[in-house]
UniProtKB/TrEMBL annotation:
Gene encoding the protein: dapF
Feature type site, description Could be important to modulate the pK values of the two catalytic cysteine residues: H113, E162
Family designation: Belongs to the diaminopimelate epimerase family.
Highest taxon listed in the record's lineage: Bacteria
Active site: C27, C27 (proton donor), C171 (proton acceptor)
EC number, UniProt record: 5.1.1.7
Protein function: Catalyzes the stereoinversion of LL-2,6-diaminopimelate (L,L-DAP) to meso-diaminopimelate (meso-DAP), a precursor of L-lysine and an essential component of the bacterial peptidoglycan.
Signal peptide start and end residues: none
Statement: the UniProt record of this protein carries the keyword Isomerase: yes
Identification of the protein by name: Diaminopimelate epimerase
Binding site for substrate: N18, G28, N29, N111, N144, E162, R163, G172, T173
Length: 229
């Protein structure tokens, strides 16, 4: 949803709702589509757009090629920032799920993510492990579950089971969280290309003190009207 900003230094307020009606803090892919929408609707002519979200401010930059870069801010790894019940901040946490012992990374990009490394995302048990991780009691507000296959230091494949939605074709904040966790664990180096079922994203995080930048396409697919009673 596009709303007027509360902060006079912002251009818009951006609100996100899942398919189940729950409002969430942030959505990276949605942010790119938001930038495309406000330009197409001539709500702004700016190529650098500052927006408020429930998870904090975002800066969106629309390139000449139509690709949109989103300054996602700094990823946060402290368990209390997700929140996640754990006894300390570390690159990997043990998590028991349905009798299995998993090692997961956790990160917040304004919304919570758990990232599990797998050998092959094609055969990863996303349909069963995804909801089990999403609703695990150690995540009091639930969590987005990412399944990451490392192809090389600069390339991963990813599937994401999103909180309140299920598996989706792409998840921008999930891609950012996976790359941040992978870099933190020494598996990846910036920049990283993320292959998702719905397309590719480029994630830049050159330094742990730097903001994380997500870049990808945003294309208009259709227009419609919805009657709201």
């Amino acid at each position: 949803m596009v709303e007027p900003p509360r902060d006079p230094d912002m251009d818009f307020r951006y609100r996100i709702y899942n398919a189940d009606g729950s409002e969430v803090e942030n959505c990276g892919n949605g942010a790119r589509c938001f930038a495309r929408f406000v330009l197409d609707q001539r709500l702004t002519h700016k190529r650098e757009i500052h927006v408020e979200t429930a998870g904090g401010p975002l800066t969106l930059v629309v390139g000449d090629d139509g690709r949109v870069s989103v300054d996602m801010g700094k990823p946060r790894f402290a368990p209390q920032d997700l929140p996640f019940e754990a006894d300390g901040d570390r690159p990997l946490h043990d998590l028991e799920v349905d009798g299995q012992q998993l090692s997961i990374g956790v990160a917040s990009l304004g919304n919570p993510h758990a990232v599990l490394r797998v050998d092959d995302v094609t055969t990863a048990p996303v349909a069963t492990l995804g909801p089990a991780i999403e609703g695990h009691p150690r995540f009091p507000r639930r969590v987005n579950a990412g399944f990451m296959q490392v192809v090389s230091a600069h390339e991963i494949r990813l599937r994401v089971y999103e909180r309140g939605t299920g598996e989706t074709l792409a998840c921008g904040t999930g891609a950012c969280a996976a790359v941040a966790c992978g870099i933190r664990q020494g598996l990846l180096e910036s920049p990283v290309t993320v292959h998702l079922p719905g397309g590719e994203l480029r994630i830049d995080w050159p330094d742990i003190e730097a903001n994380l930048i997500m870049t990808g396409p945003a294309e208009r697919v259709f227009e419609g009207r919805v009657a709201i009673n």
